Amino acid sequence: MEQVIDTPTQAPPPTAVKDLKPIAPAERIEAIDVVRGFALIGIFFMNIEWFNRSFNEFQDGIPASAHGLDWLATYFVNFFVAGKFWTIFSLLFGMGFAVMLTRAEDTGRAFLVPYIRRVLALGVFGMMHTILLWPGDILFSYAFTAAGLLFVLFGTWKSFLASAVLMLGLAFVPGMGSAGVLVGELVLMSLIALFIRHERIFNVVGMRMPLVSLVFLVLGLITTIAAVAAFFVPPMADAKREIMGGAAFFLASAFVTAKFREPATSRFWKAGVWLYSMPFVIGIVYSTINYQKPLESVFNNPEAVKLSLEIEAKNKVEEEAKKAAEAAGKKYVKPEEKKDEKKAPKTEAQKKNERDANAIVGIHENQKKIVEDKKVLTTGSYTDVVKHHWKEFLEGPFNAAGQAFSSIALFLMGVWFVRAKIITKAKENLAFFKQLAMWGLPIGWGLSIFASTINVSHVAGVTGDGSGLMRNLVMFSNLPACLAYVSIIVLMVYSTSVFSKIKVLAPYGRMALTNYLSQSLIQASFFYGWGFGHFGMGRASQLAFAIGVICLQVVFSHWWLARFRYGPMEWIWRGITYWQVPALRIESNDLKPQAA
User: Fold this and answer.
1) What is the pLDDT of residue 588?
2) Cα 367–369–373 angle (5° rounding)?
């Protein structure tokens, strides 16, 4: 059987790990270290808010209670920081992957097995971080994305199929339903692999098309037929917009992957830009349509409010019955609903009432979770907080994999920056970085500022307020702003002016994992009830606190790396990656000048 996915990008031979030495200072890519340190600052500014609020308030935007400096601080972070820095972090992870692969190719050192260990270790770090400290962790998600990147570059059709079947089977295990997202992720990775690596061209009705374009075209035609059918088949009517959005994405992808496939060296960044941008472009279109509708609240629908009370009463009875069954050591069996064969089709008004009622129930459940979160985080012991995080983790252990749909786009762009030697020879590419900054900053900031004129806060249950449009515009703006931020930092690194002092962040970036995790430890112990109990600190004060901690971390990073080769967590991570204990302390011989 013919192999569907060719592998022009092959892994280095699986030789034993040899000549494992610390990276010499001359080999380090200083610009990457500095950008990583800069990204950590933005991550801290963004994360600290969610050490003082429940994550279930994430869609609310700027709190209605925020005024003065707190409002300004929140506005600054929401529109100039949030989203712009996790994208930088994702870009850097892709760069790190490519740097490790390139060095393995150059030295003949093994890559796949060490990198798999590296990814598994990252997943364990992320899971422990999530449960023991903070549920806003990004490392667990990055582990899934990094595994997906391995599939993109080295996967075969057999490995894709076997993994998809395994994940699909796991999704049917009780409590593991969130594993289903991994199937969708694998499908996405396989399509990316086809675009980047498969070279066969097919003749379709006189048109020359690569396989990936043919796949997208078939999917587009199928979803287009389904979209047309949705206008005539009542059960499909509610999903009409989603089907139409899918059809637009598949057909546009068929065109783009055929038209803009060459040169082959550009496929990484093209795939990344397309995958990141297209969902938000579709989201902007739909949310613009919604913004034209009258301002409306589900709580102003009397029939929906009445129905929501009935649903909540029924849910309460079922919950009590389930608890009683568990207390008696029995398995709870949900009673079957009586089927009414003569049931009349629901009118559009009835469907709307049901949607509004379910929205009200969801809002009430979310409010209960917010209350529970705040109670546990402000009054609970450390054990209570860990149990609370563990319970949330078990509700969707693979939910973090959903982030991979956005992260993989940035990982791919990061790989291109290294493989095309854009960042590894940054000094020779300063003109390119200037162009990125000149275009990216006004577009990124311009879209963010425009979005903030539409809406900055959201009240649950309200439609037509423009909050969806605002979020999609901001998310779309994150990519150009991210590239502009990276470019500006690179230009500062190679500047001959005072701006070159930005290099003070290099040691801070070299210890990114240690500093990221220690930020969470400091914040959890300072804000949560089991620590110093300052939960709910004002936003301006949060930023002042973050700046203070960052300054201390920068100083500590300089002190530590003057004595040790790696940060503490980086040392552990490297040891797991290469499966041997690396030397930690800098010896006097290491400080002697090397012969040319």
Assistant:
1) 66
2) 120
